[in-house]
User: Fold these one by one.
Assistant:
Number 1:
Amino acid sequence: MTHFADRLLDQCRAKGAPVCVGLDPVLERLPEPIDTGNPAAAIERFCLGVIDAVEPYVPAVKPQSACFERYGGAGVEVFHRVVRHAKSAGLIVVSDAKRGDIGTSSAHYAAGLLAGDNGCDALTANGYLGGDGLEPFAEVAQRDGKGLFVLVRTSNPGGDAIQSLRLEDGRTVAEAVGDVVATLGQRDVGTSGYSSIGMVVGATKPEDAVALRERYPQQLFLVPGYGAQGGGAEDVRACFKPDGTGALITASRSVIYPGIDDSERAGGTAWQIRVATASEALRDAVSDILSHPTS
Amino acid sequence: MTHFADRLLDQCRAKGAPVCVGLDPVLERLPEPIDTGNPAAAIERFCLGVIDAVEPYVPAVKPQSACFERYGGAGVEVFHRVVRHAKSAGLIVVSDAKRGDIGTSSAHYAAGLLAGDNGCDALTANGYLGGDGLEPFAEVAQRDGKGLFVLVRTSNPGGDAIQSLRLEDGRTVAEAVGDVVATLGQRDVGTSGYSSIGMVVGATKPEDAVALRERYPQQLFLVPGYGAQGGGAEDVRACFKPDGTGALITASRSVIYPGIDDSERAGGTAWQIRVATASEALRDAVSDILSHPTS
């Protein structure tokens, strides 16, 4: 069984850049006509189409659980089928579910979402409950070759009101959470030098990203916020080590909803070609950032 | 439309005490023989039986989403049916899902879990992403007469490593999150004086509960940790105001898994009588605590 971090880094090398396409399906933006009586089927068709379109260009996808849970049990069934389709296409699947609870409940989430052949490759989690709330996820990750990305510094403006507060001991709240994550991750470090337990660090907070990158050498960063949320090339560069490893850059809306004109809404595969092109552009942009260490 | 806090307080008065039974169904502890080929059906039968048993004695139930999600889309279907059954029995339903994301994703969670006739009465949420991540939940709560309980001080031991850290400005991290919650809640205060936006404050941290109770007069506290997790009478009392309002005490394992001897596992309703008795005992214990302000 290959360690999650080693597997992710291999895939990133094979595809040419450490990038990830977010799957955030919302009915209002789907490119094809929708049977409004069956929204879950509509988002399933869209997600499978996006996966097929981006598969040649990117190593990973990140389905947003909220978009599927919106449609109840049927939506959750679709979520699991989308995960399965992406895995069978050889993509690494990071389920963006941001789960976190006391240990006994986290164990249920880990069993249902992350464990075994039916689980995704990695899960996002919330560390506000501390180490014992994350422990069951870490155990499954180590046992099954899976990964975890714990929210440390999020990309939204409101995160500052908590995460960038300064503690008496000089650390920020984000660093206090990060320290719990780094300690938890020490026991499962791959040959790449990275742990199966990584962090979410937004591309919209570059000064923080520099400090966190320095502080947590064993943690992979899952980096949202590039593109639609405003993160640019310099912001992205701050999340990597000088050797070009250490981060997985995600983009959602800019890739899965490229400008689609109304003539294309009639269906067909024209929209998939645009999505494929957008994912190729994401890959090339990040590859370009990494090949020019100072701009 | 009645305000959530007013509705909850009315129900607590009608049933005799502000208590809530947690629905945390796990296969290993179910009282009846299980068809292992259909675990979702087994937890559904159990939860419906618990609801029917406790309904005369308690105003509210709190299904733990993780226990249902463990069984994929079928489990989530069961979750929604359990919510529906409890609501139709006149119980207030607090879905313990601890969701939290950036605003666009939180809006999907709010739509899928909280909004409208199909949604539960209240939802637990994680505030690590700050006010903009909670905003969509607060909007739905205000619009639809629903409630929110944001994690401030959790009952597990590991929570200390984050929540009790002291900030440069003298507050704890829990208070920093609490301040965001209190600000958010100001716009929707019921005639009871309580907001639709409350907090989760564990019964295992009584000194903190005293300070938080003082600091947040408009917030209802959802209080886990009584019973199985070790919180006692004094710990519970700290979560209430002198007038006996301000908290909803939850207990799960001590009520839904009372000692059941093996002869009862053959089925029938004997286990429901034990569960009913345990819920009656929970109600009486909390009622007793509240009628003796100093012990």
Note: The domain at 4-291 of chain B is CATH 3.20.20.70 (TIM Barrel).
Number 2:
Amino acid sequence: MDKEKKKPLSSLGEFGLIKFIRDNNTHPQRYHQVHLDIGDDCFCFQSHKNSKYLVTTDILIENTHFKKQWATPEQIGQKAVEVNVSDIASMGNAKPLYAFISLGVPKNIEENYVKRLFKSIKKTCQKYCIHISGGDTVSSEYITISITVIGISDSNIITRSKAKNKDLICTTGTFGDSGAGLDILLKNKKKENLKQFEKNLIKRHLLPQAKITIANLISRNINITSMTDSSDGLFKSIELLTTDNKKGANINLNSIPISKDLQKFTNNNIQKIYNYALFGAEEFELVFTINPIDKIKLQKLVPSISYIGVVNNTNEVEYFENDQKRKIKYSGFKHF
Amino acid sequence: MDKEKKKPLSSLGEFGLIKFIRDNNTHPQRYHQVHLDIGDDCFCFQSHKNSKYLVTTDILIENTHFKKQWATPEQIGQKAVEVNVSDIASMGNAKPLYAFISLGVPKNIEENYVKRLFKSIKKTCQKYCIHISGGDTVSSEYITISITVIGISDSNIITRSKAKNKDLICTTGTFGDSGAGLDILLKNKKKENLKQFEKNLIKRHLLPQAKITIANLISRNINITSMTDSSDGLFKSIELLTTDNKKGANINLNSIPISKDLQKFTNNNIQKIYNYALFGAEEFELVFTINPIDKIKLQKLVPSISYIGVVNNTNEVEYFENDQKRKIKYSGFKHF
């Protein structure tokens, strides 16, 4: 029993901890007016008939999510806001409204560093017409940025769990760039020795862009059956849209959009490419499903969308390369 | 210029940083439906005519706000929720609804520690009928707890800035206990050597209670003209209710409610008592103002309320002891 109590958190793991929290959570009551409970990209409560508020929160901590020597305060501030906006984008036709910014910074940090960080947070909020509405400032050993964003939607929101048999799995952007960018940063190369494709991949890691314009466009015009962002990597996104919903999928690895930069970085090593594309996290692309009947309409609306697989009823995700089944095991980042 | 850029944050200070953030903040637009902007205990947006949502956020970081050797995970979790509920309470007739909990914990922390922490957060949320609606779990060097609470009010909310000339300044509870409790903890005495009054003072520091029941009761029955909680100490609360509003006040030091425990701890040293009472933070009592006409009604409703001073038009707070003016200089805790 005592031994049991002393187990480190890593034995439970990040997903185990999340499961523990969900299994032990409070139960909402009628007056809470919960429209979509904890577990999706956003929580959603309904204020009255046509107005739903979406809430998401993310915490970024120095040395876990970023290193000061890798990124400018402008880049750190921008990313902190973008990752929250990406969660709002994942709900479909939604608009972020308010941001609550809690900053923990070391006592001996330069005043100007903190000002630059805040100004960048503000600038990114302004880009999305978000009003900074509150927060907290405290001292801490490591820079800590906790942001909560509240958004609004006056139409149906798109959850993770409504994908249907035969739906097409679609994505924006390319995959694997952010993970490759992180690996380049981890090598601590001198800036002047970086090749252009390496610089591009680093930029993808440091400056992700929330896909809210596309999210709003497609959700207003197409019947999106489910959607999430690829913040934990494409593999995890596909799992969330299918197996959590007791569906499965066939994924065509050849269809996953890959950038020229990633091809150069991996010397076209297909194994490495798939690894980055499936497990490189913090990509913030949209991963969503549509009824195949809507494909032509979507192709016209956003020609750059990729179609990477099909939902089925098997409760299992299978990966295919040149029509050959390929075994893929989870190897993404875990906090614990 | 370069030297200017290298200034440490301490030269700006905590209140300077907050001022910088306010002066450089975004400007809300009509569609933001801001009812009460950043700067009060809560931010408030109006969803429709009779429904206002209140939002507050607080971040607690190990070694800044608590030490593991001083407090159990149960105590840390409880306090993290209570401090947010206290901000909702300060708005008057309001009810907390949703909590968003971001946890940063070290990789090597015991699984059981995190479970106990979360269970305590949950239990305290349940006490206030709050539904845990989202969050984030990440690894960090130090335990980090960032909580955002959304509440609702269907009546007028009470801000910090509506105190009028001749209003009475009122408080719940006693002051200075939490600050004294912190000082006892800082001495790292062995538990078995602690006297009962020391244990009581420590408890006041570790387990503050949000005064939401009283806040709801008085705001439903009395015309409260302004209100805040004493999270940054009584001195700061009085400043917020008066000078921020271009009012002043005369405060009668003899009327500030002091516990027997604090008297024992300070050996009745009046200088020490006032110092703890005015500058000991994290007390979470209500500090509010009423029209003197309402005093009798309030005395009947909540006999334990103290009346410590009177608002005036001087834009300055003056302190009196036995009718003698006393000079008081800010000496509270600053993060930077």
Note: Chain A is about 35% helix and 25% strand.
